[in-house]
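Hi V.,

You were right to ask for the full record rather than a summary. Here it is.
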Amino acid sequence: MFDPAAEPRWMRRCTALALRLGFLPSLVGMSLLLVLGVLGLTQTALWATGQGPKPLALAVAGAMALLLSPFIAAWLLRLMFQLDAARQRHSVNATKDDLTGAHNRRHFMQVAEREWARCRRYAEDGAVLVIDADQFKTLKGSHGAACCDALLRDLTRLVTQSLRQPDLLARFGAEALIVYLPNTDPMGALDVAERIRERIAGHTLRWQHSGVSSTVSIGVASVGAAHLTLDTLVQDALVALQAAKDAGHNCVRAAPIQPRATPARPPSAASGGPRARRP
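Predicted structure:
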């Protein structure tokens, strides 16, 4: 398995340089280095041993280097590009959930932590939604785990379609998703949650000549002055989620709205300040 931590630093720098230059310039440059290296080693060997005709040996070494170096350089470049592709796949896989394709919980907490800190610093709006699929245990017993996996992938796709590009979606648990909504006021967050709930309630998965559907319960919490950590914001969303489940499922509940924290300094003109969610 590819491990970026075990990759030598010089190899990473060489790969980055080759990608920056492109294949053909890198091939010419590497071929030239191989030719010079072969000639240098030949000269060193002749000087150390003092045997054989030096001009003839250098000519033979140079000819062999010119013939073989493009093939060796192309092979090395191919390995370097494959290594870079493996590094990129590893980077993506480290942040993605295998089943749903959404971000995993660890990546979500890292990115959402930065967004939450920015909201706190500038007293901007932000909210967290925790979305939990209803009665998945019953569906798993009647239709099997494969059906529930397919349904969870569908639910993730439907949630994604309800979000903006800056919104962050991740798998939070076996049957739960979590969303961070930057620059979203409490009413806007409730609006998004309700749209998600309605879209999922109206969806049916075709499974083995029959239809399978599920609903979701959603807990909403908006960033407030009392949320000293991201965990406290998520915990409020989980409490609101439990209230939605206690209310009979297939509904949205929100944590009490709190006043926003006082900003450390006003937002810059480039940021444009807090903006409301789309109507």
